[in-house]
């Protein structure tokens, strides 16, 4: 089979296919996040503004709940840019998937950044919350990585390919295998596909289903492994350099599992949040993502 490496320019949790959210840390840690909201970069931006002819007029504070990696890191890169516009970005990190939504629903925080829309929709339905997406920022691509074989050209009859076994991640893995001509899925299987939806299997590959965190551990036992960005990084893979194929930015999975900025319904036109989204979609932040995450995190292009 001809090797096909999907074309996206690559530059990392959450993994819920991974979108990871973070739950509340201790009050001390949350306070520390707030206390440390002024970074050297922010101070430098303020000094530059003063030297240019005066301080920037304050427009207020934007309070955002976020998971640590990559979300809070990306927000840290956005902070000095927002400061130049007069906005103080206050980020609090969480380490579960519930509290970041609850603090936005309650109005304690203006927005959050940790999840994709399928999770958001599920959360709203289950919890009765009123949260909406206001900006698509990045996605964390699935890739096919070397196991005992280093090229998709070498695929042979009966090869074993390890994939995550949870619903979301398995479907993404199977779709990626389909995109690369290894299998064909039944019409309409889409993002709910399982191994039972494989319609054609010309190489008679064996799909080995494992817990997402275990897939990389069998790389020396199977022909190929299919991983999402954060697990690839943890396994020591460079997404940009090692992936034999990965999700295109215009793929169904990338569009569906793009990580988003979320607010409570009715706050879509909050000026601070609009400024935040604009900065997160700016060339400066895209460059930061691309240069920092080695392809494990990719800016989403509309």
Automatic annotation (TrEMBL):
| Species of provenance | Roseburia inulinivorans
User: What name has this protein been given in UniProt?
Assistant: Lipoprotein
Signal peptide range in chain numbering:
1-20
Topological category with respect to the lipid bilayer = Lipid-anchor
The family this protein is said to belong to:
Belongs to the nlpA lipoprotein family.
Instruction: Read off the Gene3D superfamilies from this record.
Output: Periplasmic binding protein-like II
Keyword Membrane part of the UniProt annotation: yes
Task: Give the GO cellular component terms, alphabetically.
Answer: membrane
Keywords, A to Z, come to: Lipoprotein, Membrane, Palmitate, Signal
Alphabetized CDD domains for the sequence: PBP2_lipoprotein_Tp32
Q: Where in the cell is it found?
A: Membrane
